[in-house]
Each structure stands twice: as structure tokens, then as C-alpha cells.
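If I may wish for something, please sit down with the protein I am sending here and say whether C-alpha cells and residues agree:
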Amino acid sequence: MQFIQQPKLRLSMIAVACQLACFGISTAHAQSADEATKVVITAKKTGMGLMVTEDAPKARSTITAEELEKQRPTGNAYEALEMLPAVNSYNYDATGLFGGGLTLRGFNSDQIGATINGVPVNDSGSFAIYPQEYVDQENTCSQTVTQGSTDADSPQVGATGGNFGINTCNPEDKHRLRMMQTIGQLNMKKTFVRVDTGLFSDKRTKMFVSASHAEADKWKGKGGAKRDHIDAGINYDWDRFNYIHATLLYNEAMNNNINNLTLSEINKNGYYFDYADTFKGHLKPVKGVEQKESTQSPAFYKLGINPFKNAIASATAKFRLNENLDLKVLPYIWYGYGNGGVQQRAQSEKGFYDATTGLRNSGVDLNGDGDTLDTILVANASVTKTFRPGVTASLNWVSGNHDVLGGFWYERARHQQTGPMLALSNDGISQDPWLQNGQILRPDGTPAQSRNWMSISTAYQFFLQDTISLNDDKLKINIGVRSPNVKRDFTNYGDENNNVKPYNLIKKYNTLLPQLGARYRITNDDQVFISVAKNVKAPPNFVFGNIGTSVKVVNGVANFVGDVKQESSWNTDIGYRHQDDKFIASVTAFFVDFKDRQATTFDPITQASSYTNVGRVTNKGLEFEIGNTPINGWAMYGSLGFNNSKIKDDMLSATNVYLPTAGKEMINTPKKKAGLSIEYQNGSFWTRVKARATGQQQASMVNDETAPGYTTFGIDGGYTFANFGYIKRPKLTFNLSNITDKQYRNPSSTTVKNTQPIAGVTTSVDTQRYYLGAPRFVSVTLSIDI
């Protein structure tokens, strides 16, 4: 969900944080049934935080706080996973404040279930993930990727490609004040303060609250990013079996967008071409004479903005009912508001919508010249407001060699999507970047909208899983099933883009998803595992509003053009792990069989969302990971991934017109991916070198445009000084990314069919835009505890 922000929180954040502490604002650390193992092994030095021992009967990778502490504090969740063999991730800039992209085994981020402390954070409409929103990296204790088999209790209706989970750190047992200051190139700075109360006198309660402010200039063009963030939490523990843990995570940010260029724009204007520095202004109003303004290309940089704010409140309550039975309840509320893209539109003064007729033939004088003959530039973007309460409840029963987990998940997401319009000054500035105040009204007094949708998505699922331990736990078998259901209740109230009366569409999606996994210990250090699971993803809500492509409206009745089907996949993993005191290694072979694969994207230039049913697709490959405990201060982590993605069918693009996609590779699915980290630590000093290599990626489904492979290098290091009076653990850390100043690009859209005409098939083409790699960047961080 894309958003935008008001300039509020800056200097007042510390005061707000103190108030949160005083009033006991809550914080939580939620764990799934599988996470107990992860918590135990988090402190191990193997892989230096990039790899931990695993025991699950499925493929899974975990990075810990030890690794996250070494990374740039402004980094986001995608960047933290970049070294894993299955993950192809990238940031839009070096700081991570502008967001990023990710694919996992060829799955796009909107096909991966994402949670933070057990709360689903995929956009309830499009299933997109916005990694810069959720939590300060300083408060993150682990990130886990389950590459193929979605966890049985995962609260998702849009995950065909596994899980991605973030767990925040618990409050500290002892009182602590932590302060961190980061500075870097491009006027980058981040201030972070966290207060831990320590255990109260009851020896059961502890809490923390943190506040941060971060900002940086763009690496090309004018503008920058500003982000204010608050995390807070409280734990109340009767004992290790009975507790309530709660969290509140709040984020507010305002970013200027970085212009994503086409290949022709790069070749013509260069790598650093961006949005325009100035606004071209309005035509002089003249009554009785048509003034026809057009959108500016490239747009004025102050109109290419992304303001957003969001909050996640959750609480995990766990109770031991008897020695064999535990109850866990996780209620949550997710709120978000903001807009994104480019805030410009050329609006006809005589093209305003009339809901009674469904026509765009009402007139409004936008430039004050006394007529409605003109077309005027106005501020306009896609605004989204989401209110999303939900709850997950489960029972965990242990009897003999059986560990049975069962429960349900329910949420109701109210997803309002509008496109208000505001007047632009001759300097290209609107009254409100949030597009709330000063909206342009139609003759009937209602706000003019480029879209006006309401989606009520009611989702629920029941789940049941039995983990069976046999032969003194040499053999572990996992049998599970979940039944995700979602009802999309979609209303289009009419807008200035279509000539239709308001309509409503309701469609339900449901299925039964089995999964089976097994792990066998060959020795105490060696094990093999296999897992097979079916996953599903419901269509995104914007399909219900794409009039003329996905939806046809006749006499006020809306129907789908063809059948908008849910995507499904069968995921199979077969792997081997070696885990001893000196090093751990794993190799995993995977095979994914898609049916009705969805490819979706949002274009920030046209502000249009697109959806394509690609049909059958297969992915198969190998993944290797290895890491060691330090030997004379030296430690390493290495990863290598191979992925062969293949579209199985030619794609229908028009009546009896098929594009030659059969046998082609999917977009954003490099065949090769490798990572290497070599670290040396001597007492209080440490340093490491990282290398990450990404193979060539296809940029269209007929493979007529490609993004070349690339390799980037980074250096991190730090020194922890001796305590000095009240100052504890003073630590200086530096981060240097993209040492060689490598220029590279990643495709931004997964729906581009062909970028060149195909003789005898079609003359129409799509355009691919690219996220460009940021140049060399260095930053330094000072951290102290009191």
C-alpha cells in the first residue's frame, strides 16, 4: 500500500515516546509453533547471524540480530535478506528509506505471505509488501523465510510462495537507555533512542519504547526521504507458559520518488536522468478560448511523492490450560493511509462524473476564466485508506509422540481507494500533499475522483497440523491442512475515468490446502528432509475495477471478462543439512508447479494497476548454504542458488491472438544467484567483506528484453570501546555499499508481455521500467548505552 505524510513527528517524538512509556503502551513478540527452535539457537555464532541450525521438515532460512546489527541502521527488511540463495532483493537507494523489491524462487513479493509478530502485513487488496514501513531495524531480532511450504497457521489468502516473517525484540530485563546516531553521504542521518524499563518490582512486567527520525537526499535528482517511527512494547510473564506480549509499531514518512527509467530513456538521457526540477506552469486563462494543458514529462519532482503512515497494534496471549494443552490468541489492528505515484492529471473542465447518469459530462471551471472549455493540470494520485482488524487463535496439544496444532484466523479489511484532485499553483504545489484538504468538487458537491472504490475483504481459515516424532526423534513427520477463504465485496462508485454507473461485484475464493513434510536424522549432525505443500493466492481487488479489461458493465450490471481465477502452486522441497559445532551446511532441491499464475503490477507514471493470467509456470532449482563458527577470528557464509523458470503455454493477448511465451523464462527470475561474506573479529574489532552476484533477468514474458547480471561488493566494520563512566558499550560502526560504483538495473514490472512488435502476431508493445542500482555509499553509526 502506497502512502504519504504530514510534517509532524520530528522533535516531539522523544516526548511522545516518554508518554508511551508512562502510560504503558503495549508491545509484543509473537511466535508460531515452529519458532521455539529459532529462539534457542539465535545466539549461535555459526554463519555470524546469516545462518542458524534448523530442524523443521521443510526449507527455511533465518537471520538473527547479530547480522542485523552489522547492517546500515536505515536498511529495510528486504536488504537484510539479500545474501540468501533463494532471495533476489534490491533497494531503490542505498539507505533503504525509499523501499525495495524482492523475489523468492521467482515468486514476486505479492505472492509471499509477510508477517510481523504474527500479523499479516501484505496489502489486503493487492498483497504488495512495503518493507520500509514496519519496524526499526534496531528493534528486529530475527527474520525468517520459509521458501516453499507456507506454515499451516500462517494468516494468508495470497501466498503461493512461502512465508516471510519479522520478529521484534522483547523488552530487556534490565533498565537501559540506548542512543544511536547515523550519518552518511547525501545528507543522510538517523537518530534512534530506545528506553527499556527493565523488570518492574513484580518481576513479571517489562516494557520498552523507541523513537527514531531518519532522512536522506535522493541519489539522483532533487528531493529526499523523511521517516519518523515509534515502536513500543510490553511483556507480562507469569511464567514461560503463561504470558501476554504486545506491540505497537507506528510509521510516518514522506518520500520523493526516484524516477524508474525505461531502457530507451537510459540510453537517451543517461543513468542519472530523473524528474524535472521545475514545474512548467499553467496557461494564461482566457474566457471563451480553450486552454489545453497536458501532463509534464518528466513530471515535476515535487509531484512525484509517496506520503504514507501506518500503525500495527497486536498482542499475543498464551495460557497453559493443562500440562499437555496450550491456548494462544493473537488479536491485531492494522491501519494505513497515504498515496503514491505522480500527483499530476490533465482534467477536462467538462469531463466531470455524474453518478445519476454514469456519464462524464458535467462542467467545473478549474482556472477561473468563466468557461468550461479547458483542460487543466491538477494534483491527483491514488489514495488508499485501510482499517484491518483480525485475530488468530490456536490450541497446541502434546500427547505422546504427537504435537497437534489447530485453530482459526479471521480478519475483515476495509480497503478504501480513491483518487481526489486538488488545484495546483503555478509553482506546481497543491494545498495538501496528502490530498485531503481542498479537494475539487463536482457540480453536485461530491469530490472529483480518478477512482472511487471500496473493497471489503473478509478472510478466514481453519488449520490443523500434527507433528509426529518417531524413533527417539530421528524421524519427524508433519501433516497439515488449512482452508483459506476470502470474500471480495467490491463497490465502484464511479469516477472521472469511466462512463459507468456505480456497480457492485462479490466473489468468493476458497480451497483446501494440504501439506506433508518429513525430517530424518541420519546422525546427530546430519539430516534429510522433504516437504510437499499446496498454496493459493486470491486475485487482487483491483481486478474488480479494471473496466474494459477484467470487468465489463452492461446496463449497470458488472461481470468479469472471462473467469478471474485464483493462483495455485504445488511446492516440493528435498534437502540435506549438516550441522555440527564447527560449521553448518544445507542443500535444497525445489520444484514449483503453478496453475493460473498471476502477474500484477502498479505503474507510478500511469497510476494504473495491471493483472495478467500467465497460465502454467514451473520453477525448479538448487540452493546451497554454508557457514562456520569463527576459527582464529575468521568466519564465513556462502550461498549459491540456481533457478530454472519456464512458462508452459502461449499467452492469450486478444481474441485468437497468442503470444509466443511457451518455453520462455519468467520476469525477475535470475537463473543464478550467489552471496559470500568473509568476516574477521579480534576482541572488540570486527570487519567483513560481502559480495553478491545476481544473474541475468528477463524483462518481458516473450524474453525480448533483458536486464544484465551484476555483482556488488560491500565492506562493514566496527569497534566497541571500553565502558566510560555511565556510558556502556560505546560502539562505532561503518558501512560501505557498492564499492565499485556498479550501475545495474532490475525490472519493475512482472506483467510486461513484449517490448518489441512480433511479426504476424501483434504490433502493440509494453514498456518495462527499471529500478536502478544506487551508487557507492558510506555511513557511520555511533551507539551508546546508559
